[in-house]
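F.,

This is the one I mentioned.
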């Protein structure tokens, strides 16, 4: 495995839900403004980090997942 999971399960669920919400906002308001495009990009990143269980920014900050979770 190329990466070690560093996002706990409850946070993964939150990231997936918030990512889907961001993507939905971007899809409903397609082409309106740069803020909507940013919401779509952030939503995609959040959803992917939730699905994979790995957050690159958390890894840079040195966050590690506890083994008992």
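My design for it:
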């Amino acid at each position: 495995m190329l990466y070690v999971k560093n996002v706990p399960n409850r946070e993964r669920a939150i990231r997936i839900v918030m990512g889907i919400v961001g993507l939905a906002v971007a899809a409903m308001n397609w082409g309106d403004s740069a803020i909507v495009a940013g919401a779509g990009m952030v939503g995609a990143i959040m959803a992917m980090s939730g699905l994979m269980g790995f957050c690159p920014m958390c890894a840079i900050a040195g966050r590690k997942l506890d083994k008992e979770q």
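The chain has a mean pLDDT of 87.

Talk soon.
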